[in-house]
Amino acid sequence: MERAVSASRAGITLLVAAACYEAVARSGAFPAALLPTLPKVASTLWALLLDGTMLEHAGFTMYRVLLGLALAVVVGLPLGIMMGRFRAVENFCLPLASALMPIPSLAWVPVFILWFGLGNTVAILIVFYAALFPMLLNAWSGVRAVNPLWLRAAGAMGADERALFWKVIIPGTSPFIITGLRQAFLRAWIAVVGAEMLAASDWGLGWVIFDAKEFLNADVMLAALAVIGAIGFLFERLVFGSLERATVMRWGMVRAAKG
Amino acid sequence: MLPARPAAQRGESHWRLFARTAFPFLVVALAWEATAHLDVFPRKLFPPLEEVAAALLRLTADGVLPHHVLDTLVRLLAGFALAAVAGVAIGFAMGRSRRAEDVALPLISIGAPIPGLAYAPLFLLWFGLGNVTAVLLVAFVSAFPIIFNTWTGVKAVKEVWVRSAQAMGADDRRLLHHVILPGALPYMLTGLRLGLAQAWRILVGVEMLAAVPWGLGWMIFGAREFLNTDVMLAGVAVIGAIGLALEKLVFQRLERYTVVRWGMMA
Prior knowledge:
By secondary structure, chain A is mostly helical. Chain A has helices spanning 2-27, 38-50, 53-85, 87-100, 109-116, 120-145, 148-156, 161-199, 205-214, 218-249. Chain B has helices spanning 14-37, 49-61, 64-96, 98-111, 120-127, 131-156, 159-167, 172-209, 216-225, 229-260.
């Protein structure tokens, strides 16, 4: 009952917000090029989806995000685990990570453009930089958070170093690793949009938005914003949600979030 | 959130801790110097560290760098202050009133997953190039974590506390001041902290896009045109130092004086 009331209120809110926007857009108080009406945005989105350009842009963006994210996982995950297991690695890497972490990834864009030229390489490296630290630090704190009792118990039952690693440390760390992946994706998603705007390759959702500004195509901008939001939402809910359900929740390591 | 501070290990002197922390930087600096001086890459693109330091000193001495830093900080604080006021107010309303929650949550859930910079061109179109856009965008983007956390915090205040305060005759004002605000504060501080970090990340990007005349983001982006890699690296270093200072000096201290002292967080 309460849920139904909430859902209907949510629907009403969205309708009212849309109606307000529509009224302002149609009132002519602002130029139509700057504040396009919602049907216009929808038809632009539909046209761009139909002729495939939007999908191609989204494809390029996804390629950059996923490649950068994969690189960050390949580097950050083993390094983070080693930092958790070996003092020497921790002593070496932690100060460097603490010094680099507060630098926003976008601050590197101009430097990377000079070093690697405009284009894909810069975007992928920026994504890598943005995604690396959440991955690294979560893996590190995950290994350190493994209950020492489990390690001793496994050791007492005769587990060798290898079995200990695969059977105790990795499953024990997995909730942190998944959190790390989630945060890494969020950071990567923010970084890729900025990198695409600044590093100006000809494809990608960030570039679409930035390019549309030149021609005052606010409808294209809003359409691309909707696509960016939808992809981010899908990833967060579907990909990471199901990943969590298939692993740590099934193993009973975290409870399902309420609501 | 993450304990990214090198902690002293048992029986370790200050000097050893210092040496242990400095060692990795020394290794990286040496590797950098070797690469720069062996001319693996063009000198203009990969300057040795002494040139970066010289650029830093030169820019500081002639007052250019302090001006950039000041403008960036003013923008950051203005945007963040707007976000903090609006975010805490909206979050409180959502936490206390079911109706406000139902109205605001769908709008926020739609806005939040879109990366802040994606709004930048739209804001540029609406508000023009310059300061207004930068401040508004920073405020808009950093408001989301503040709203979410304040809302969660207010909802996390135990019902028993509210009821017992009411039973003891607390009016709405006292309830707010003595029960809800302290109860929600750990979450609010987390939200403010995340919001500030978000604001800082976005601001650097916005300054590159919004063509503001001064600001660190603009400084490094502008230096690209003239291949001034030393200026860029000096700017990146300053940006990192400010980010670190915001985290360590502002929030850890604030936390220690409030929620940790009240025994609400370890």
